[in-house]
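Practice problem: predict the structure.
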Amino acid sequence: MALGRRVKNLQSSLRGSQIIAAIGIGVAVGCVFAFLFPHGFFSTNQLTKVRHVSDSNSEVDAASCESTEKIDLLKSDIRRLSDKNAELKRQVKELNEKMRFAEQGNRLAHDQVKVLNEPHKAGPFGTVKSLRTNPTVVPDETVNPRLAKILAKVAVRKEIIVALANSNVKEMLELWFTYIKKAKIPNYLVVALDDEILELCKANDVPVYKRDRDESVDAIGKGGGNHAVSGLKFHILREFLQLGYGVLLSDVDIVFLQNPFDHLHRDSDVESMSDGHNNMTAYGYNDVSDEPAMGWARYAHTMRIWVFNSGFFYIRPTVPSIELLDRVTGRLAREDAWDQAVFNEELFFPSHPGYIGLHASKRTMDFYLFMNSKVLFKTVRKDATLKKIKPVIVHVNYHPDKYPRMKAIVDFYLNGKQDALDPFPDGSQ
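Answer:
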């Protein structure tokens, strides 16, 4: 019994000691935390820090938006600077090209002056030959870079056929380029004077060029008749020559049967078909005028030649050729005149008091190969031998019923219809 009481007392004292120990530990821990955190776990400073963190997150979001805008602005600046850089590179390239052409021009000019100024000793009888062919101009692509790119793709050996057309001649133009294609002529170009012709050419895979707006020529180009449009060509062809290309100018009332570049001589500034119809009229003759009242001197000799046709001629890129175009263009702007008459006057009239003639060389084309419609309908179709000659081109310049005669020419020379030309009269009715 005594032992039981002792055990109980011991257990009671142990419980009391554990409680006292727990209280002591609690007090000790409390002192430690009081020392480490004098302001408590959730002090105002900590709450402020929490608010600062929250505010800083908002600021980060705002800064993020602002950074996005800055990045977009920087990208825009980079694009702008890149475009400007590309433009500067293009300008540098153009300047380099100009310098190259200028240097080339200086060399050519120096060589030409050297040759022309070099004194020549006359050789034996029959061996002396004068300068036949003027030197070509130095190409200047800055005159019309867009046209220069087109010509670089289309021209062959720096030569090209060029025709001007508006919608008034649409039907003939279609026949014109159809038979250029059949003759396998690759180097040709239509200068479209209105949008309808531009779209027609694009639809038929025909090389085409439409000039930049020019009020001085657009009104004529879009609504003018044959003669008015014909006068424009002298103005427009100048750029082709400045770019260094030989041009075979063609009206659209022409049927191509062979490649004309295979039949050019290229020994003159201008090589043109003739309106003449035989050897005398096409190539020139001595015409004698009789005036009986003059007695002994009644007979006066004159030189005659029928005119060059301004609807089909080859012109080389030389200074006299460009001067010819300038003279004709200038006169047509000042005078109410026919372009073909002015073209021939400027080519043939010699210098005389008050006038300086054009120093351009010229050649008349073979009138059976480069044939006008008078030769065909008045002579060739009635001669069994001449009918066997296949011309290079036939120009329906003498007759107003152009389209049906063009189709008949195609039937006769290309489709083998020997009677295709028979229904038409020699002249017009």
